[in-house]
What we know:
Elements lengths: L7 H19 L12 E6 L2 E7 L8 H11 L8 E4 L15 H8 L5 E2 L20
Amino acid sequence: MKTAAVSHEQDALDARFMARAIELAARGTWRVSPNPRVGAVIARQAESLAEGWHKEHGGPHAEAEALRDARARGLDVRGATLYVTLEPCGAFEGKLTPPCVEAVLGSGPRSPAATGRRRSSWTGSTLSPPRSAP
C-alpha cells in the first residue's frame, strides 16, 4: 500500500491542531476520572472550525462536544479533519454516554486523526466501528 506524501505545511498544521487538542484535554483535569482527559479540534485546511473537551465524568466526550460546537456555529464539518487525543469510543456495557464513533462517522469528517493512544477494542488507527472487545 502506497502512502501519500505529506507536505511540511500539512505537518505543521497537524502539529498545531493536535497541540490545541492536548491543551483542551487538560481542561478536564480532576473532573473526568476515571476516564482519560480528551480534547478535540475540527479543522479545514488552516482554519479551526470547532473544538471540545471532555468536561466531566458522565458528560459528553470531546468529539461530541466539538461536533456540538460546530452545529452551534452552523458549520458543516463534512470534509474537515478531526484531531482527537484518543480514538473515539465505541459502544460497550456500562457506558454513561452514547458511542462517539457513530456520531463522528455520521457527521462526515474526511480524515479523523488521533495520537497513538488507542482503546483496547480498537485494532488500528483508521476510524471505523470497533469490533467486539476480546
